[in-house]
Amino acid sequence: MSTFIRGPICGADNCPSRLWRIIDGRRTCQYGHVMEGDVEFNDDEDDINRLGAGVITRRLNLTTNATGSFQSTQLSNLQLLQQQQQQRSQKKSKKLTGLDAKLLFLKSFQFILKRQIRWLIDEVQFPEEFEHVAKVIWLKILKTINDQPQQELVLRLHMTSTLSILYLASTHLSLPVYTCDYIRWICSAKMPYFQANESLPKSWRARLPNYYVSILEGSISPYNGQLYNKIALTCGMIQFNRSFNSQVSCQALLLKLVTQCTLPPEFYFYARHIIEFEETDIKNLVLWERTDERHTGPISNHAEVRVISYFMLTIHWILSLDKDRRYSLKWILALTDSLTRHTTTSQSIDRNIVNTVYPDHPTSNDYFQWSDDETLQFLNWMEKQFLPTQAKSLNNESSSNDMTIDQKIARRKLYEIFPLDSNTSSDGGANNSKHQLTFIEDLQERYAKQQPFLNDNKTLHFTTRQDVHLPTRKEAINRLLSQIASQLSVDFAISEWQLKECTLRLKKACIHRMN
Amino acid sequence: MFEVPITLTNKKFAQRRKLKYQYINHISKRFDKVVKKTNTTDSLPTPENSAAENNDEDYDDDVEEQQNDENGDCARSIRQQTKRRRERHWKSVVGELYSGTETESDSQEEDEQEYDDQNTRLKETSIDEERKFWKKYEKPEKSFEVWQTVSSQNKVPINKQKMTYHKFRKIEKTSLRRMEIPLLHCTKENKLYFQLLAKGLEPLQTPTSAVRNYQARHIITLTNLLHLNVSRHNWPLAYKIFATLIRIPNVQIKSIWGIGVEILNNMPNSSSSLDFLQWMCQIYSSKSRFVQNINYRSVVPPFQTGSRTHSAKFAITYLWSSLITCQESLERTNINDKHYDTENDSLQELIERISDWVLTPPFMEDAEVWFIYASCHLLKADLLSRQFTNDNKNDDLVGLNKDIKINQVIKHIHYVKVFLQTCLEKGGFTVPNRLIENQLKNFESRLYEETQDIQEGEIVDDYGNTDNSSVENSFGDVYETNAEFLDTQLMDLSPEDNEKTENHYSDEDSSE
């Protein structure tokens, strides 16, 4: 008697059976209902030589497709099924455990790190030496791991560790690159970070335990100063300050902040003075080495956050003490407006993307005010940068083994109904004709817009007094500061509260020193 | 902000749900103990019930009352089960055979066993509280996406039980005390969340607002942008967003197909929405089996596919819209003999597709599908019978040829009647029965327009009184009414209309 085969529901007289067997070549269910209209063709050519030797019977093998109905019976299907089973059994045994798994994880981590360094050198024109420095830092980390006893080996590596290694290397080389840049690169999916496990060699991924695979997925972008904490911890791990240049190049950072907010250039010097006053020398701003693994410590320990806070403090003090002499109220209001303005330079698109990634900032819902152009740019980015990282197997179907052939066909049909290309070609053409502003052009334009408010403050003086609807100067400054703070906190992946706290702490320290 | 087409499952949500259902189950248990009154009505709190109640009464002390009602219902069903069990026990003692309710009580027995199992398992305490809760109410294949509107006939008054506040406090207190231990083991956030819910408050934070996952964030953004641009009627952008969204893995197309259809309808030079709907029907067929042990609730938008008893909404939409396109394409063409066969194709195809669903196992048992099936045949009968009136001059239809064509029409008319009957038998779907009967009579009278004197008697015999005045009906009129009834079916009937059709329905029954 043949065994039962799972198939579609019989349904004759509402028979619930799903089990079928073949009796006299007819498919019959568990309770004896014969499937109607089920004909098997034996269209294989009978081998006459074999027939002479003896009758060879071959059972027709039934397989079911995704919807539970029978597929045509072919030998190839059987082979497919066997292959799948083999793969499945192999997969189970393949996963490594213990020390082997950790070694493989280190290898994979290194692989991703190498990809990131390559990208930085090729796309952002980092110097070639960058690779060597990063390598040395990575080796130092490996050494500390190696020094641990093998039984209780703790790796303490996360995807943010890759960023901290890169950051340390760029700090050592005094490159004008800061955490905000790294965060922008990973959030806009330019640098390999999210779904980085997809780029690993297939054999590695198959053997790597799921826990490590999910670490390499990098599913959550660093927030609330996590990246700073990780950098400080990595510093402490390898005693960075002892053998490397750990001075943060804060002049460039200040310049960057000033231009980003389109403040007049004198603000750069004001901020520098304050920093030099408080820290005695600007070179004293160095990376913090954290050795305590449990407690993160105050956020103001981190050099970059200090610089940002000093910057905020400068704006606050200068504008408050100015009393409408040089910086008029109108100018402050215009500046606040210009910061919220939406443009479609590549920079602002990147910022839009970063904004959407962080849910607890007030800017995260900015997309409700996006213009059509911005939305389109965002979608273009989605299509070109984001989608390729999401599904490697989007276009080449052979690489996705985890889908059955039915699912692949279904997906292809769906994509035919909703083609992406047809529309993008027309939209892209329209877009290219419109000139996209470069960074310099955009900067010039923004500064040009500030100019009338700065020069004509004498004439504007009277009008501001008369206008009742205008907010008071204090309110305007607060609004400007909160606008800048919300932007900076998103850029540097810290919470607004942390930034506020740090600014307050530094303010107290400054006042204390003044007295 | 909007519903996100991905399943958000993590430890936090699972823990929240577990706490919630643990509490509810315990409260209902306490309630059974405290209130020991017997009740005979067995009605579960359905959306219709509560809606009907909302209409009836003003709702002052709603939190407490609602809780009472729910609890009361649970208690009632349980009490009824025990009552029935006792009854059966006595009957078996007396030796009396079960009467007509034998099958029903059999099914009840199963439920009872389930319930008993639950009770025994309760002592083991390692059970899925959520599943236990839902087991009282539903089977998965019967309870997805029921989009019924409130009508007078659905109104069932909830049996309200009065309960003193003191008693309520007592029940609440013990249940809360019971919850203290599980609350010790959960996170601070979830503890707060539970306490909010227990007090009847609703946390403002939606589950999506705190998600930090990179991919999920982008899906949320895209979904919001999609809704935004659809509401702004910015179709090209919406199309692009939709096309991007469906290419991200893990996005469930089942929860956003409606928007996709709307976008395709509004986009010129794109593939038709029918293709998309057809794709949906092919991929998510209603032939899948529901496994009772799987908790379908935990998958975020529950029950989006069809089952044997319910057809999925996209399947219904597909049938209706393809029927309408058929009708529109037929309306546009001049009634030419030569073009008939080609034009018939789409309609014939549709008929075959529906018959595929309805006549092959597992048989679809949705009344609405049967009604659409009947309407297809109605359209077909209309189409075929039109030949007779227009071809008067052609004289093609003579002798055998004519007989064949007449037979075809009669065959389709017969189908319409049979399928309508099945539709009515399945129930749950109101049908403008008399209107259709009139239509059918019209079609028949067309056949015998010339030869009325010969065959009139026959018609009368077969199909009752034929109103001769309606023979004069022009085709435009017929179509108008046809389109009308299609429209009324698409829109939800107002309660008044419902009553009217109900009356028709009863008339029809009495005449038969």
Strand and helix layout:
The complex is a heterodimer of chains A (515) and B (512).
Chain A: E1 5-6, E2 19-23, E3 26-29, H1 48-53, H2 75-94, H3 98-123, H4 129-147, H5 159-172, H6 179-187, H7 202-207, H8 210-217, H9 226-238, H10 240-243, H11 250-260, H12 266-279, H13 303-322, H14 329-340, H15 346-357, H16 372-390, H17 405-417, H18 421-433, H19 439-455, H20 457-466, H21 473-491, H22 496-514
Antiparallel strand pairs in A: 1-2, 2-3
Helix pairs in contact in A: 3-4, 4-5, 5-9, 6-15, 11-12, 11-13, 12-13, 13-21, 13-22, 14-19, 14-21
Chain B: H1 11-34, H2 47-56, H3 62-94, H4 102-124, H5 129-135, H6 165-184, H7 188-198, H8 214-231, H9 235-245, H10 257-266, H11 273-283, H12 313-332, H13 340-359, H14 367-390, H15 399-426, H16 433-447, H17 452-463, H18 475-490, H19 495-511
Helix pairs in contact in B: 1-3, 1-5, 1-6, 1-7, 3-4, 8-9, 9-10, 10-11, 11-12, 12-13, 12-14, 13-14, 14-15, 14-16, 15-16
